[in-house]
Amino acid sequence: MNKYEELKNKIDEEIKSIEESKSKLNELIEEVKKAEQEEKCSNKMLFKKREDYYHISTAGQIIIDVWNDDKIDFRRLSQENAFKTRQKAEDKLFQLKLEGKAREFRRINNCNVTKEDLRNINNRKYYIYYNLVKGITIGTDSTNIEPTKLGYFKSKEMAERFVEENEEDLIKYFKIEMG
């Protein structure tokens, strides 16, 4: 066997090895997709019949209840008010309270953005969000008409004031939001 044939055989072996690896990789990818689909399907039904779950009452209290597969249970679930743990319910209640505090702050300080402001793309609107590098940040958006959960502020100064007054709560809020 000459050098050319020897090198050609090595190349053929490497190609065969790569093809086998590629085939194994494709099989693995298919298995991952299948497992992911099964996971999604298993997560659709969060609660089993007679399982305890938590929800937030209209009075703002955390209540433990039993899942009965009835309309009330499914209504709470559709409203994102059914939780596996008390902690998850407490976290959601904390977020709802801070969102309410932001609404009240904007109302009291006359810095709430009106529907007309939202429709007018020339009006700047300021919102609070979390940037993984910078931390709590004030953004501006003149085109998005969908309010953030903490709402829009008419001025950057008012958004900054809300952040200043509520920084620790906002950090907790965004940690919960990010999971």
Q: Any chance you could write out the topology, listing elements then pairs?
A:
Layout: H1 3-44, E1 52-56, E2 62-66, H2 71-78, H3 86-108, H4 115-119, E3 126-131, E4 135-140, H5 156-178
Antiparallel strand pairs: 1-2, 3-4
Instruction: Let me know the average pLDDT.
Output: 86
Fraction of residues in H or I helices = 55-70%
Shape annotation:
flat
The counted number of beta strands is 4
The value of Rg in angstroms is: 27 Å
Run of helices and strands: HEEHHHEEH
Structure notes:
The chain is α+β, with helices and mostly antiparallel strands and 179 residues long. Helix content is 56%, strand content 12%. The protein contains five helices and four strands. The chain has helices spanning 3-44, 71-78, 86-108, 115-119, 156-178, and strands at 52-56, 62-66, 126-131, 135-140. Strands 1-2 form a two-stranded antiparallel sheet. Helix 3 packs antiparallel against helix 5. The longest helix has 42 residues, at 3-44. The termini are far apart. The relative contact order is 0.09. The model has no long low-confidence stretch (mean pLDDT 86).
